[in-house]
Automatic annotation (TrEMBL):
Domain Methyltransferase, residue spans: 169-262
UniProt cross-references to Pfam families, sorted A to Z: Methyltransf_25
Name assigned to this protein: Methyltransferase domain-containing protein
Secretion signal, residue range per the UniProt entry: none
Species this chain originates from: Acrocarpospora pleiomorpha
Listed InterPro entries: Methyltransf_25, SAM-binding_MTase, SAM-dependent_MTases_sf, WH-like_DNA-bd_sf, WH_DNA-bd_sf
Gene3D superfamilies membership: Vaccinia Virus protein VP39, Winged helix-like DNA-binding domain superfamily/Winged helix DNA-binding domain
Membrane-spanning intervals of the chain: none
Amino acid sequence: MTTLRDQAAVLMPHLAGYTAHRTIAIGIRQGLIRALAETPSGLTADKLAADLELDPFYVATWCRAAYGAQVCDRQGDTYWLEPHMATLLLDTASPAYVGGVFTVLEQDEMFGRFERVLASGERLWWDGCDPGFIAGVAGTGTPFYTRLIPVGLGQIPGLAERLSTGCKILETACGSGRGLLRLAGAYPACELTGVDGDAHSIANAAKLLGAEGVRAELITSPLETMAPGEGFTLVLNNISMHECRDIDEVTQRSMDALESGGWFVISDFPFPAADAGLREVPGRIMSGIQFFEAQIGDQLLPREAYDELLARHGFTELGWFQLTPMHAVTYGRKP
């Protein structure tokens, strides 16, 4: 029989996790974690406060909480980061980077707005989001590109060899252009095209690619009405397929854009298909992401849904693999 004590033991770790989350987010925003990363030998709370021009009493409070969250270790009054924390929380170029998730989850678009419109169900779209939120989401998506290009794409039979010879690549929902930039570096002989429905994101992509000297055709268009042309060897969608207003229309237009034998690759969150997965850590994090996804009228999809989608549209040689517990890749080829 489940007791009151048993159920209290379920809730208490949630309170501890919330405290750890807020501690980490404060540490990232205020530079506390970076300052510790830059001094591996450690700093006292007083020295950390002095270096950052912060209140020493408050910084000491933060340091104790960071120690409790296992972000820091300490000896006496000296604190230093635990191994690999700098990579996980600060290194945006690492495929393991998760630091941006802590700050994005605190943005109003995630939970605050959801609660305010819980009664009305009023929807939102990207053009109604704060630019800072959009930039934050783009940052959290960067590790998906880092894992996917070129290592992930290299797991798809025959694709890497074809890309190395030069061809046309289309990225749908290209956002601020980080994926296009990585594609250009990995496959310099290829011609790049990016499509996104958000004009602000396309403008950011143009600035980013221009600054890096990367040439790409950029098209502002909903994916449901996109007409990027034909003859693409690869159509890629990274963590955006679940947001399509008409996923079948987007899939058909992706098929139409491909050359015979071309690949359609969907890189996305694999939302749990069974109840048990919802209670595991990856499923719980993805359930948090659903609060924003609900506001834009969609939800993350089980990975198996993409098998069904590609088969429904006549793709062949279907396959999939998992890069992390929260990142799966599904692919198929045009006959």
